[in-house]
Design goal:
Jelly Rolls, PA14_dom, PA14/GLEYA, 808 residues, PA14 domain-containing protein
Length: 808
């Protein structure tokens, strides 16, 4: 071992001995000394062949005892030293071949104080900026392309890192920060990370190029950049530029912010001002610094609107959503082909903020937004409907569109009603004010699936949960005063075909009873309760609906009707007949004359009654109900004979419901002769048993003898000019009775009474002239028959007999 003093360590021995007594190979040297330093940063640089170790104040700062060929023996360290003396110790070893040992230091700008207006750079010979920097310098910008070289004279080309820091003055506004690094870089502004590719590899597809948009206030802002190189070529570039127009939300234009992800998170990668959103990027990138897939955009702008309704139309491939004044009106945030969405919104006059967000996943990319003035349904129109369309089945949320229509008459089938609304699961609201003359109106609705209607705020049709019996049809009658009335209609479509229609027309008002015809009101129940659903003017009640109903407004079962009308009658008897299935009742001038409200045996809806009316106007009221099955309602009347006026040459007959001419006069009838054999009831509404009837008529006779014959089942009585000539008033089988009377020429009144008890019923009365026994016949007998055993009393019959040979 040998010692000597040297003012500096700057030896290049080549292959020579360092001094006598020391071998040219496999030797080592230690240098120690104390040196005075001004306070500050110093760069210690060594150049050795082979190994080296360096201590400053007993702190080892370089340890290259085994030579790292990537450095070629060149090592640097950047140290901050306090003012005063510092101990420096260097150890060196030579293995073989050339020998070299050099150490120097120099004061450099230190990064302990961040400079203003430029960067202070620190270089580390590792990838994670660990330990002390090996070098440092100042530079105005970061613009390096080292290729496969080294950033310093150490010849270390891989596995190093750098840190730049600087304070810079910015005007207020938006700035585009652009990095281009190989391998990794991260950037902070005022401690906030805005660029980060510190994952050890340059990410596809941008390969180290990153754009970030950041808004800054006026003044000084600290910019910190960190970079690392792993292997291969090395590059570190970073700069910024002002983006005009996006300092704040612009007026009349959009500020667009582009993000390198689908979630609009982190700092935007890029920004610009767009006069409109109308982009079809197809498979290309939307802007430099953003890849063609997996990106997102946010547009914001303030725009002037006049007071009106507006239709917003947005198209997205993929996700899209739109806000107006912070209110979400379109939400299509999903993967999709180019899809159009619509929303309707009334806006006040003034400035409104429009914001649209968009993301692109892969494939084609489309982002479009426009708006147009349309119907404002917050103001109900006059004489038209304002329609609002909703993409929901409960009219919730904002409408996607609004339009004006003259009427509601739509059959969309299986298609969509408008763009922006699907063919299924949508709803519509129509509102309008319409002028009406005073009167009754028929409102008819047709729909598939559900509908409800309000008139002046009153719900008049509620088919929101339609029943099977109606199949999309509803009808009501509504009395309206003269003037404007508000009509509101709501409609819902679930699935399948879609249809919506509402019409109205004048309908008869039964408040005033018509003359010469019936005003009919129809009810959707069996007890004529509530409001009628239909009204009609009918010249007669003559309906046989079979299995149907009287109107589309009513089911074919469980309905009722009321008819009223004033009719002119001559004085006299009138026969009223009804035929109904099911219940039926009739009033004349308020008196109930037919009550068949319950169909019962034996008539089953067929009723007949006789009513005597004075000459003049009489009010007829009819009520009817249908339970189930077939439906029928008929009423007719015809003038009936008045037997108080005895006819000539004919009989006028009166039928009674009981055997003793009680129970009410059921009917009258005029006939030429009495020749009846009634196997069933003699007339409608008279049972075939236990009835009675009276007959009277004036007949012309020639002078002579007449035989009167009466065949009856059961009792019979016959009067001739008020003389009772036949009287058998008891129940019996069909039995014939006779009486003989001498009549003078002229008119004679014949009166007959008859009753039927049970079984068959018959009445036959006739007369014929006969010869008397003066003079006596020649060659024959003249027989006189009496109804008494003493040949007294009225003569029952006279006839000529050829012989007397009877066995009765």
């Amino acid at each position: 071992m040998r010692q000597e003093q040297t003012p500096a360590i700057a030896f290049d021995w080549g292959r020579q001995r360092p001094m006598h007594g020391v071998n040219p190979d496999r030797f080592s040297v230690r240098w120690e000394g104390s040196f005075n330093f001004d306070g500050g940063a110093y760069r210690f640089t060594s150049d050795v062949d082979d190994g080296i170790r360096l201590w400053i104040d007993d702190r080892q700062v370089i340890d290259a005892w085994s030579m790292d060929w990537s450095y070629r023996g060149k090592y640097s360290r950047l140290l901050r030293l306090d003012p005063g003396a510092h101990k420096i110790r260097l150890e060196y070893r030579e293995a073989w071949s050339d020998a070299r040992a050099k150490l120097r230091w120099e004061a450099v700008p230190g990064c302990g104080t961040v400079p203003s207006g430029h960067f202070c750079a620190e270089l580390f010979h590792n990838e994670e900026l660990q330990g002390d920097p090996v070098d440092g310098w100042s530079e105005a910008q970061i613009a390096h392309d080292w290729g496969k070289g080294s950033p310093d004279n150490s010849k270390r080309t891989d596995r190093f890192s750098l840190r730049w820091q600087g304070d810079f003055t910015f005007e207020a506004g938006a700035y585009r920060f652009i990095s281009d690094a190989d391998d990794s870089m991260r950037v902070w502004i005022d401690g906030e990370p805005i660029i980060d590719t510190w994952d050890g590899a340059r990410k596809w597809p941008l390969y180290g190029t990153q754009h970030r948009l950041h808004r800054l206030t006026a003044g000084s802002h600290r910019v910190r950049v960190e970079y690392k190189e792993r292997w291969g070529t090395a590059k570190a570039n970073f700069h910024w530029q002002r983006v005009a127009g996006c300092e704040a939300v612009p007026s009349g234009r959009f500020c667009a912010e582009f993000f390198g992800n689908k979630t609009l998170t982190g700092a935007p990668s890029e920004g610009r001002v767009d006069p409109a959103i109308n982009f079809d990027w197809n498979s290309g990138a939307p802007i430099d610094g953003v890849w063609k897939d997996n990106f997102s955009v946010r547009w914001q702008g303030d725009f002037a609107f006049k007071a009106s309704g507006y239709r917003f139309i947005a198209t997205g491939d993929d996700g899209i959503r739109v806000w107006v004044d912070g209110r979400l009106i379109i939400d299509g945030w999903r993967h999709q082909r180019p899809t159009e969405y619509r929303a309707m919104l009334p806006l006040t006059a003034g400035t409104h903020r429009i914001k649209m967000e968009y993301f692109e996943s892969g494939g084609g990319a489309v982002a479009k937004l426009r708006w147009e003035e349309t119907a404002d349904c917050s103001q109900v129109p006059q004489g038209q409907f304002c329609a609002s369309f909703f993409p929901t089945t409960d009219l919730s949320g904002d409408p996607v569109d609004s339009r004006l229509y003259d009427k509601i008459d739509f059959d969309w089938g299986s298609g969509s009603p408008i763009v922006g609304v699907g063919a299924n699961k949508f709803s519509v609201r129509w509102e309008g004010d319409f002028p009406f003359a005073a009167g009754t109106y028929r409102f008819k609705s047709r729909f598939d699936d559900a509908m409800r209607v309000w008139i002046d705020g009153v719900l008049v049709i509620d088919a929101w949960d339609p029943k099977w019996s109606w199949f999309g049809k509803r009808q009501i009658l509504q009395r309206l005063t003269e003037g404007n009335h508000r009509i509101k209609v709501e409609y819902r479509e679930g699935w399948g075909n879609a249809r919506a229609a509402l019409v109205w027309e004048t309908a008869p008002s039964c408040d005033a009873v018509p003359s010469g015809e019936f005003c009919g009101e129809y009810f959707p129940n069996q007890d004529l309760s509530g409001e009628p659903l239909e009204a009609s003017l009918d010249p007669a009640i003559d309906f046989d609906w079979q299995g149907g109903g009287p109107s589309e407004a009513l089911s074919h079962d469980k309905f009722s009707a009321r008819w009223q009308g004033d009719f002119e009658f001559e004085a006299g008897y009138y026969r009223f007949r009804s035929d109904a299935d099911d219940g039926f009742r009739v009033w004349v001038d308020g008196d109930l004359i037919i009550d068949a409200w319950k169909r019962s045996w034996p008539w089953y809806g067929k009723q007949r009654t006789l009513l005597k009316l004075e000459a003049g106007t009489h009010r007829i009221k009819v009520e009817y109900y249908e339970a189930w099955g077939k439906a029928k309602a008929k009423l007719s009347w015809s003038k009936a004979p008045d037997c108080s006026v005895v006819p000539e040459g004919r009989f006028c007959g009166e039928f009674y419901e009981e055997m003793d001419f009680t129970g009410g006069l059921a009917d009258t009838l005029e006939v030429a002769r009495l020749d009846f054999d009634w196997p069933k009831n003699p007339i409608d509404n008279i049972e075939h048993d236990t009835f009675s009837d009276k007959w009277v008529g004036d007949f012309a006779f020639e002078a002579g003898l007449y035989r009167f014959s009466a065949l009856a089942d059961d009792g019979v009585r016959v009067w001739l000019d008020d003389e009772l000539i036949i009287d058998y008033w008891n129940q019996q089988k069909p039995t014939e009775y006779r009486a003989v009377r001498q009549l003078i020429q002229g008119k004679h009144r014949v009166r007959v009474e008859h009753f039927d008890g049970w079984g068959g019923a018959a009445l036959k009365v006739n007369w014929q002239p006969i010869d008397d026994c003066s003079p006596l016949p020649v060659g024959a007998f003249c027989a006189e028959y009496y109804n008494q055993g003493d040949l007294k009393g009225p003569l029952a019959d006279i006839r000529q007999e050829p012989k007397i040979d009877f066995d009765w």
